[in-house]
Amino acid sequence: MTLKRLIRRGADRLPGFKKAQVFTDEEEKQLADYLLHASRLNYGLSLMKFRELAYEFGVANHKKIPATWDVKKIAGRDWARSFMDRNSCLSLRNPEPTSLARSTAFNKHTVSTFFAKLKTVIEKHGFTPENIWNLDETGVTTVHRPSKIIGPKGAKQVAKVTSGERGQLVTVCSAVNACGNHVPPFLILPIVNWQDRMLQGAPPGSAGATHSSGWMTKENFLKYLEHFRKHSNCSLNNKQLIILDNHDSHVNIEIINFARSNGLVLLTLPPHTSHKLQPLDRTVFEPLKTYYNSVASDWMTNNPGKNLTIYDIAGLLGQAYPKAFSPANIQSGFRVSGIFPFNSDIFREDEFYTSLVTDRPNPMGETTVDPVVPEFPPALSPSSQPGPSNQLHQSPTTNPSSVMISPVEVRPFPQAPPRVGIPTKGRKRGRCRILTETPEKVELEAELLAKSERKASRV
């Protein structure tokens, strides 16, 4: 009996074998399309939830389903395995945790707003590729992430030495332009007093500052802009466009005044869209981390018994930085983000799917993008269902209907309810804006004044 059971399970997965196929090919395509679309929405189904959906889909369409499905109210494991084998476009994957803000912020409205402002500022000042810059920070730590190693087959765990359990963070501020050039890095080290030996081995022209946390601050960002001015030769007669995010250290009056007096035009990205619109995040920082981890691993091998410290990071960056900040990587980042060559239609329709869950009219009367629901194949008659009648039975439902019920009708995709009112408390959301324009500067001054008055009233 064991041999028969194993042979039967194996036969279920042979090409063209229809015994375990409860649904027709067209109906299975509807289920596969549903799973793919749910995954693009960032609301993909686990294997257990898919089996529940398959059972509900079969009951809703009066399909002949195995008796065990009705007993357990769920499709069988063997059927689900066969379904996955028949639909090679599907695979069971470990999802990457993605915040709700990032999932919903990348939508057509915010992206079109960014490209409209980018086009306006380029046409107004006549910026050419060498004048269009992207600026951002990333972090490296004294505890690197080792790459894959060769070890014994079948071992549950293999290890490679690092300098500790938790490392110290060093912020690296970088700027690149659309021609493929870059400004030497600016390091923020987590100490109090600066020492010149902290830049030993760093890329030529590097500079740095200190802060107890190792994070970028308003004061240190002003120092970075002075570093940027030195290497970019910006002036009122040679203006430069800097595209950057809405971090608090970037958005303040001192920074804007310095930028305006030195020919810098600051354009901020929409919040939570840097994974798509920021060239450094698209094609540069990931190779930098890879190269850094590689040279850090080599350092640990060449210095057995020693811990990697913040004084060694500059030397490691000196090896990794030139490899990651190559002209090809930088130019590719500007190209795939649509900044240069300018292409406001660079993103496909399905790349906006993650925002469809929260697309709805808001209280201010703005209209948003209408949700896009994929077209599913036409309904098929249950009578066309193959399979031996002695192993399948009609699910206990009402009289069958000739109208096919789609998986979307059985289990609709998630959709946020309409907004109720306008939030009046909490931190004000950032937005895409040209900070150095006079109206934006005046508005920011008013916001900061109101903020200081609120603080004074609470004292």
UniProtKB/TrEMBL annotation:
Residues 381-404 have a biased composition (Polar residues). Signal peptide: none annotated. InterPro entries: CenT-Element_Derived, DDE_SF_endonuclease_dom, RNaseH_sf. Residues 170-334 form the DDE-1 domain. It comes from the Eukaryota. The lineage of its organism: Eukaryota, Metazoa, Ecdysozoa, Arthropoda, Hexapoda. Residues 357-430 are annotated as: Disordered. One of its GO terms (cellular component) is nucleus. Pfam families: DDE_1. One of its GO terms (molecular function) is DNA binding. This is DDE-1 domain-containing protein.
